[in-house]
Structure formats: structure tokens, C-alpha cells
Design brief:
The chain is an alpha/beta fold and about 290 residues long. The protein has a single domain (about 15-275), classed as NAD(P)-binding Rossmann-like Domain (Rossmann fold). The chain contains ten helices and nine strands. The chain has helices spanning about 25-35, 45-55, 75-85, 110-140, 160-180, 200, 210-220, 230-240, 250-260, 265-275, and strands spanning about 15, 40-45, 65, 90-95, 100, 140-145, 185-195, 205, 245-250. It has a seven-stranded parallel β-sheet, sandwiched between helices. A two-stranded parallel sheet has the order 5-8. Helix 1 crosses helix 8 (about 230-240) and helix 9 crosses helix 10. It is globular.
Length: about 290
């Protein structure tokens, strides 16, 4: 497959992608493979990430695939050093690994919230801090972190996910400021996808008494408007242009404007939308 030689942002650069077994992570890997990028792919799903690697290799990419749990901080630090030793440099880090959980606040156990934060937020912190010295040393580094539309607005039944994605947004935006203040050669981008059809919703856990599968089906049917491939192309174009924020989908752009114009209005809209599309947990018996 011919490599797109449109610029030097991707050709022969080394990109690390977490959560690369499926969805946006896999689509990012394939998109970058077609642009001549060397890839370090990881996921807790080893079979899935190896399948992604094989598809990238068929496009002529140099790829290494590993099982990695981003909640295991010592393993993440070791992995960062291994990738640096394997490729000699690291240019781009795509913090993509994430999970979801359905359930209102009074249905959730603390451990449910902790699990979401461990993967979605602390996983980003672990990967970013482990790879940042290598990104700085490259002289051409870029941190790309996947937050969410739910890092811009809130949604009922998604308090744990909302909290994690708002935290990711805050961490990423502060990191960008620090790179600017310190004049480090590292760009920072925060990504906010709207409704993208991935396995995150389908694999989500749920509070006791809720049917995660039916909620996921409703999400896929009513709100998953975009393909992972469309999301990956949008992210890569944002990286090429060194954008601070990348919003994926017209709905993400519209709701971002609504949240900035009327924060309380966006909350009322979220409550109304949840009733209209019936993807939030319904009222019923509580613990």
C-alpha cells in the first residue's frame, strides 16, 4: 500500500497507541500505518491487538504489539522504556484505552467508580508520565489523549465516566500549558469524540439491576453516528495541524457550544435527551 507523503508529521515517526485491539485504537493504527508511521500497539486484549498489528503489517508498517494493562503503573513504565529501546525514539503517544460503566450515583459502589477512574484517568496519567521524557527527548513529541463528548457535557447514568473524562480533559489541557511555559518540544491534543460505534459501550459494565447489553444496543442504534475510521481520520488530521482540541462529529461541536453558552441549559438538555433516546438507566428500585 502506498504511503501518503503529505508531510513529515507521520512518515517514519514512532507512535504508541493504547487500547489498540479494536474501535478507534485499531482505526488509528491502520490510518497511521498507511502514513508510514512505525507503531507500538498495546491492549489488555492480546489476541485483538495482535490482529490489529497483522493488518498494519499488511500495509507495510513496522509494528510491535504487546499486552498492557494501563492500570499497572510499573508495567507501563517498563513498557515505555522497552518501546524507546526497540525503536530508538518515541514521537507520538495516543492515550486511547478506556472503559465505561452504566449506573446512577445511588446505584454505584465505590469500586465501580474507582475502576473507571483507574483505566480512563490514571491510565492516561501513567502512560503520559512514563512516555513524556522520551517524547521530550525526541525533539518532536506529541501527546494525544482521547477524552469524550462526556468530557464536555454531563449525562445521567454516566457519572463515573463523566468524572473520568472531565479529569482527562483537565489533565491534558494543563499538560499543554506546561509544555508551552517550559518551551518543551511537545504538542498536546485533547480529543472529544461524539457518538462513535466502538466496543466501549458494548463492553461496559452496569450497576446491579441494569441491563448493560440493552443500554449498549440503544446507544449503538440511536447515538453511534460515526465509524471508528472517520474518528481516526479526524484525529490524525488534528495531529497533523497540531490542534489543541479535536471534536469529532457535528453533535460534539454543537453540544460544546451549548455547554459554553449555557452550562445549566446543557444539563437540562442532557436529561431530556436521555429520556428521548432511552439510553440512561430508568427510574426504579435502588439499593
Amino acid at each position: 500500500m502506498a504511503v501518503k507523503q503529505d508531510d513529515d508529521v507521520f512518515v517514519n515517526k514512532v507512535a504508541v497507541i493504547t487500547g489498540a485491539a479494536s474501535g478507534i485504537g485499531r482505526a488509528l493504527a491502520l490510518e497511521l500505518a498507511g502514513r508510514g508511521t512505525r507503531l507500538a500497539l498495546s491492549d489488555v486484549d492480546l489476541d485483538g491487538v495482535e490482529a490489529t498489528a497483522m493488518r498494519c503489517e499488511s500495509r507495510g508498517a513496522e509494528v510491535v504489539a504487546n499486552r498492557l494493562d494501563v492500570t499497572e503503573r510499573a508495567a507501563v513504565r517498563a513498557y515505555a522504556d522497552e518501546v524507546r529501546a526497540r525503536f530508538g525514539t518515541v514521537n507520538q503517544l495516543y492515550n486511547n484505552a478506556g472503559i465505561a460503566f452504566y449506573g446512577e450515583v445511588d446505584r454505584q459502589d465505590t469500586k465501580d467508580i474507582e475502576r473507571v477512574l483507574d483505566v480512563n484517568f490514571w491510565g492516561v496519567v501513567a502512560s503520559t508520565t512514563a512516555f513524556l521524557p522520551h517524547l521530550i527527548a525526541s525533539g518532536d513529541g506529541h501527546v494525544i489523549t482521547v477524552s469524550s463528548l462526556f468530557g464536555l457535557i454531563t449525562f445521567p447514568g454516566q457519572s463515573a465516566y463523566n468524572a473520568s473524562k472531565f479529569a482527562v480533559r483537565g489533565f491534558t489541557e494543563a499538560l499543554r500549558q506546561e509544555m508551552l511555559v517550559g518551551r518543551y518540544p511537545v504538542w498536546v491534543t485533547c480529543v472529544h469524540p461524539g457518538g462513535v460505534k466502538t466496543a466501549v459501550a458494548r463492553n461496559a459494565a452496569a450497576a446491579e439491576g441494569l441491563d448493560a447489553a440493552s443500554i449498549a444496543r440503544a446507544f449503538d442504534r440511536k447515538l453511534a453516528l460515526h465509524s471508528p475510521e472517520m474518528a481516526a481520520r479526524t484525529i490524525v488530521n488534528g495531529v497533523r495541524r497540531r490542534r489543541a482540541r479535536v471534536l469529532i462529529g457535528a453533535e460534539a461541536k454543537a453540544l460544546d457550544r451549548l455547554a459554553r453558552l449555557t452550562p445549566t441549559g446543557s444539563q437540562r438538555f442532557g436529561a431530556l435527551l436521555s429520556r428521548m433516546v432511552a439510553i440512561a438507566p430508568r427510574p426504579g428500585s435502588r439499593r
